[in-house]
Every structure is written in structure tokens, then in C-alpha cells.
Write a structure and sequence with these properties.
Length: about 450
Amino acid sequence: VVQAQDITEEKGIKKKLVFHASHDELTGLVNRREFQIRLERIVTSVTDRDAQHVLCYVDLDNFKVVNDTFGHAAGDAMLSQIVELMRDCFRDQDTLARLGGDEFGIILENCDIADAVERCTVFIKTLNNKKFDWKDHSFRICASVGLVTISGESADTGELMKQVDLACYTAKDLGGNQVYAFPDQAADPTQYSDIIRAVHCVDAFYDDRLRLYAQPIVPLNDSGRERTWYEILLRFVANEGRVVSPHLFIPAAERYGQMAAIDRWVIDKVLKEYQAFGEDREVRLSINLSGTTIPSGDLCGYISSKFDEYDVPANRICFELTETATVTNVSQVLDLMNRLKKQGCRFALDDFGSGLSSFKYLKQFPFDFLKIDGSLIHEIAEDSNDYAMVRAIQQLTASLGLVCVAEWICNENVAELLKALGVEYGQGFIYGKPFPIENIKHSFQSQAQDS
């Protein structure tokens, strides 16, 4: 006796269930869970043979604006179109995954970092050229992309995801709409892991990991201006004494919520060091504040308490804020500036011109100094557009009654051009490279002995 049963429909249902368990319903891409399984398989296989792959993390820069303005239906429609662009820009063997609302992961198998950068750059350009339409509206979107090489020396999948997440965050922090391969693994494959472990450690910045450096800011024209002015810079010491550049360390600290504590550590150490200069030293020090620090707790109260603790005159301290920090936290920045300026503190708008997003805010904030971004200064002698930009910014600064400071001055030719434009102060290697903050006090002692 044979009993036959048609299980075609049942098999179809099971197949659909398996697919939906491993794929995103909206885009049809693999989901986070399936992506993690495939990444683990790749990491395991790469240790068995000489192969190289690349892990990619894509974050849409302004997707939230679309969602908030036009609704989730518009956002979903746009995501579906973006996924089609992804499929056109990457290979069939590459794994494409939707990891979150506007975040995507890609595993580029048998691909080196140079080829991965090229493919991701093509994707960004394709995305930039695409106009998305929704009812009577149209808009464009851009993305930040982070890349990390998967090789025989790679850590586990959890560490790789932290690395590529921070690489993407760094691309976004640098202005977005770009690809960032991080770190330079060919130079030092362990450096990145050192940073990640340190910023996750609560006591990292007390564990002899941070160093304070100073770089002089000098008057370009009037010799009667401030002669002794230094910007305080932060350095991170990784394992085996390697000094890590801030552009690697700061994004990691901001990404993992350590920057507010680190800024407070810097303020405490700088004011304590200032106390050692002596009462007769008329030194101005500039301290950088991260945008993530400003809204955290009573920052003004903390700074005021440190002025009292170390008996430091507030009018000798200048706080530097970036354009991004200023326009992102308008009300909080205004409150902080107004309260500290009553005590005598000065404020500088740092990296002005890198995005030119804060022109309309300049009249609103009580800044004392405006620092022109070094990218506009560096080639001012060769690039007429940079020269015109710097001239316009200096004229704007003068009309607002602010003092202008130029960064990244590299030679006398650039310095002379800036002097002719009326820029008051300069900063760059031509006037001195960053040195340990303790050396400021030593220079006073040398001057005293010479006199």
C-alpha cells in the first residue's frame, strides 16, 4: 500500500520561512544575524589560506531628515532604490546586508583594500547623482563608508565590527560623503585594537595614556599683541609607547562616550599646569572642547570650580569650539559661552571654512577669535580659490570685530600673504611643532636665566 501526499506547498512555506529568518523584509538583503554568520565563516576561512577580504560599513548621512520630513513610507521607498544601486555597484559574490534602519554591511570577498575603496567610491558617486522623488518632492542622499581589511591577522568578528563601525564614524566625522579605510593596517595591525580597548576602559585616561602638548600661536603683525599663547593638544600613547594621532583617537573616544570625561581630565590637568607657571606669567592657553562634552552635565560649574581650585585667572584661558559643535548645540553653547565670558574666558571658533555652515551663526555667538581651517591656508600661495576664500573670511572677521587666526602655516611665503591680508595670528610648524606642555614652564626658566 502506498500513500502519496503533495508537500509542494509545505516545502514552499518552509523555504519562505527560512528566507525571512535570514533576510530583511523590506530590502531583501541578508539581515544582521545572517551577516554575522557569514562574517564568522569568512574570518575562520581566511586563517586557513592566503586570502584577503574587506569588511564594509555604510551609513546614510541624511536619511533621518528624509524620514522626519516626508514620513517612513518615503524612507522605505528610498531605501529600496538605494539597495538597487548597491547591487549594481558591487559584485554578485559580495554579501550585502541591512544591519539597521539606514546602516548596511558588505563583505567583499577576495578583494584588496584598494579595490574596495574604488568600488565604494563609485557607489558614493552613483548615490550622489541619483535624485529620489516622492510625490511632489525630490531629494538627494549621501553616505559615509568605513572599510577594514579581513586578513590572517584579523581579530574576531566582534572586534572587526567595532573597527569598521569606527571607520565609518570617522568618515562621517570628517564631513561625510566619503570612504575611510581605517586604520593603516599595513603599517601597524595592532594599533587600532589598542585604541578600542583603551577608550572602552573607564580608567584609560588615568592610566598614563594621555599626554598634553602645546603649540605656539604667534602674532603676525602687531608686536604689541599677545606674545605667549599656546593651543593645548591631546595625544594618546598606545601600547609599547606608540604616540597615536588625534584624528585616530578622538573619533573613537567620541563614538564610545569617553570624550566628556576626557575633556574634563584635560581641563583639570591644564589648569593645574598653569598654576605651576607662577603668578607673573601672562600666558594664554587654548583648550579644545568636543561637541559631545558641551551638553554633558554642568560643564560651566566644573570649569569654574577648577579656576577656584588652582587659582587660575579665567581671562587667560580660551576655549576652542568647532563649527559642528556650535551649530549642533546652539542653545547649550550660547549658555556656556555667556556664563564663562562673564568670568573673563575667551572663545575661538575653530576650523572655520571647513564646512562654511556657521556663517549665519557668527553674529549670534560671542566669539573672540576665528581660526581659519588649515586646509584653506596650506596652499594659499598656489590656489587662487583658497586665497579668495581666506581674504573673504578675514574681511568678515574684521567686520564682526573678531580676531583672525590662521592654522597650518608652513613657510614664509604663506606667512607674508597672510600678513598682507591682515590676519592677526598664525599657527603652524614654521613657528613651532607641538611639544610637551611641561616645556612651557622650562622655557620660562631658560628666559629667566638668560635675563
